[in-house]
Design a protein that fits this description.
3-stranded antiparallel β-sheet, 10 helices, globular, binds ligand NAX
Length: 322
């Protein structure tokens, strides 16, 4: 399988590449050709990482390439992890952030359209992830939009971990958490359908804890990590990217997880937006879990997050990026 990682010299890239090369992304029997895409300033560091990858003598790693050319990077790609993006500079308006990232994800979408394998799967990690996925997909008209996704698995995993701590259970006992909307402070981590060992979470925690502690803690975890570590989440983000792709390829079974996928209008989310939903991976495709009841609180939270996605879409459309 041909796997391409953009932003390969960044901190998530560094945490991600070795796990891919060791077989954790696609399983222990799938050989991998790795391509790293960087901007010119990042090439030397990416070359250094390529030397380290060689030194690991990973049995599954068949080739490593480093390039600054998106067309070369995505030629024949099966799995594209779009991690590299332009960070928000001090004083930069949101629209400025959307514009500078649109200028990255537009050409990368076009390069994917030109050369990716027919079965390509794209995961956008770089922020603003949902709208970057929208832009990349818009520039790749020959690739079904279902093959583009954005990462909310880290938010999902954070939610599961927080519930496990609160309820003093192991993470694998928690089922049915859903993250809705944008990967931003307005995301909605929803426990209404979550269970612990079969018992509804809502029977075990009170409403005040959910509203005042759980939701802000999960949505604000990125800032908590920055404050503690002096740098943004890296290994946990890489781990979530591995989980996302592994599940996409191998299936989730009856359990569900969360991912930002193109909306088909489910749950009142306008079609075409890349929004996080509860999803199952079945036969190599994400399916939005259907038929969940949405109470008034959940409706308001989902709508607020989706309103932000609509606003972002309007911004990138006004910049000519759609
Ligand atoms: P870093 O700044 O460490 O690395 C980014 C790398 O991308 C740099 O090496 C840079 O040279 C490269 N880059 C920039 N433009 C590029 C381009 N056009 N082509 C190829 N490479 C390019 O950031 P890092 O901590 O690795 O984070 C990467 C992105 O992930 C950021 O946008 C960050 O906000 C986002 N995150 C998303 C998360 C999610 O859950 N969706 C969570 C973690 C993370 O915050």
């Amino acid at each position: 399988m041909n796997v391409t990682v953009t932003g390969a010299a960044g901190q998530i890239g560094y945490a991600l590449l070795f796990r891919i090369a060791s077989g954790q992304l696609l399983g222990p029997t799938t050989p991998v050709n790795l391509t790293m895409l960087e901007i010119t300033e990042g090439l030397a560091a990416a070359e250094g990482t390529a030397l380290e990858l060689q030194d690991c003598a990973f049995p599954l790693l068949r080739a490593v390439r480093v390039t600054a050319d998106p067309v070369r990077a995505f030629d024949g790609v099966n799995i594209a992890l779009l991690v590299g993006s332009r960070p928000r500079a001090v004083g930069m308006e949101r629209v400025g952030l959307l514009e500078s990232n649109g200028r990255i994800f537009g050409p990368q979408g076009a390069a994917l359209n030109a050369g990716a394998a027919a079965d390509v799967r794209v995961l956008v990690v770089g922020n603003p992830a949902n709208t970057n996925a929208l832009v990349a997909s818009a520039f790749a008209p020959d690739i079904p939009a279902e093959r583009f996704t954005a990462m909310t698995r880290l938010d999902h995993n954070r939610g599961v971990a927080q519930l496990a701590v609160k309820l003093a259970v192991h993470v694998d006992q928690i089922r049915g958490l859903s993250v809705w909307g944008n990967h931003s402070a307005l995301q909605y981590p929803d426990v209404n359908h979550a269970t612990v060992g079969g018992t509804p979470v809502s029977d075990l925690v009170d409403e005040a804890w959910l509203v005042d502690e759980f939701i802000p803690r999960v949505a604000g975890r990125g800032y908590e990590i920055i404050k503690a570590r002096g740098a943004s989440s890296a290994a946990s983000a890489a781990s979530a990217a591995i989980d996302h792709v592994y599940d996409w390829v191998n299936g989730t079974g009856e359990q569900w997880t969360s991912a930002a996928v193109v909306s088909d209008g489910s749950y009142g989310v306008p079609a075409g937006l890349f929004s996080s939903f509860p999803v199952r991976a079945v036969d190599g495709r994400w399916e939005i879990v259907q038929g969940l009841s949405i109470n008034a609180f959940a409706r308001a939270r989902i709508d607020a997050s989706v309103a932000e996605l609509i606003e972002e879409r309007e911004h990138v459309a006004s910049l000519g990026l759609l």
